[in-house]
Amino acid sequence: MSDPKSVITRLHGAGGAYMHNLIKEYFLQLYDGYGEVGLDVLDDGAVINGIVFTTDSFTVRPLFFKGGDIGRLAVSGTVNDIAMMGGDPIALSLGVVIEEGFPKSDLAKIVESIKNTVEEAGVHIVTGDTKVMEKGSLDKMIINTSGIGVASDALKYNFTVLRKTRQVKYEWLVPMNLRDGDKIIVSGNIGDHAIAILSSRQGIEFEINVESDVAPLNKMMKAVLEVGGVADAKDPTRGGLADLLNDWSEKSGLGIYIRENDIPVREDVRNAIEFLGLDLMELGNEGKAVLAVSPEMARDVLDTLHKTPWGKNAAIIGEVRKDIQGVILETAVGGKRLVTRPVGDPVPRIC
């Protein structure tokens, strides 16, 4: 096995501690102070002259899985990164790297999926790039999507409400906006995407009928911002809830307390997790959002989520607390354990 101290390994791209350390050691030195929300925030996007900008590359295996494919994943992932910062997504680029010998029939299916997903999200593909690599030098296909968005009236209203309870330095959804007492809301069942990917891979088939949750969430986010009181939002992709909540705790300087019994999860997904020896807190998701909401508005935000197609199973799972450090999980049997940032994603190449 390669030594992660001297060479790049898959752990460095898995969304956990190794990846965060790699970014801080090598790439953060590129930050030169530019942007209202810049590279130093290490969020899923940046804000430049009022424009939200993000980019992401997708290497999911297999390309087609239960509930989705690499095309739907690429559009949804980039749309969601913009939406989770409070931006209203407008346009995307599409960069595709294809292995020589790739079936045109599969390419047609992926392009059709991209078309359907951008229509669902209400965004536009406006530019792109195509490359073909020699057979054997690439695992079928990689897609890169970059996107831009702008602040909506809903975002401005959200911060009008939030400013009634606190001072706000960033009028974008970032972890530094969190305060003691904020409620932590997850928009739906956790773990569906990771288990759907696993059940679609050759040699890991088991009796379970779970589809990926992959979906663009910008319309759901607009609905909750129109209620107001949202301090931050993020989709729990690589590294899952564990990585997301540790990121919030580190950047806000506050603790986060979560109750395991309150985390929504399908029973068959829970059974699969136990069978495979996985940790629910570390599983990636591609159609869920985690929100930090002022306690005064949490119930209204939850009710609004329940009225959307993407938030029917939304639940309050915990709160931000200044009297603890890090992320504490109250287990199903009443114990407490410290949840640390995962080393890497337990299910590689889910996005």
TrEMBL record:
Gene name of this polypeptide: hypE
Domain PurM-like N-terminal, residue spans: 43-151
Any matching Pfam family: AIRS
Protein name: Hydrogenase expression/formation protein HypE
Gene Ontology annotations of biological process type: protein maturation
Signal peptide range: none
Cross-referenced CDD domains: HypE
Highest taxon in the source lineage: Archaea
